[in-house]
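U., I forgot to send this yesterday:
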Amino acid sequence: MKNNSIVGVLTKLAVFGVCLFAVHYLLARAFPVCAAEGIYEAHLFLFVLTAVVMLVLKFIFKKMTQKQGLFGYAFMASSLVKMALAVVFLIPIIKSNADYRIAYAIQFFVLYFAYLIMEVVLVAKLLKQD
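Result:
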């Protein structure tokens, strides 16, 4: 299996997602006062969103040549769409009167940036291969 194949990229992302979930779960068990109700669904949402973005970027990278120089724009557009979807995902929580909404939003954005960093690392490796 090639290291930067679609399967390889998704495997790395899955291992990262499982490790991130395990760390978050253990921290929530150790500090129950910080646990936000329903935050584990955010893991699934962000994982699926990042996987879809990586699949789309991998497809675009395979179809276009480096001379076109449009891959950077595709990455920025996918990041913008991912950010907009994250905000749409958070709107019901933020508008609710739940006591945990601030903790939820903070934990969500920590997860969001963790997945974003992983996405940047995987895209950098993708660009390095060529």
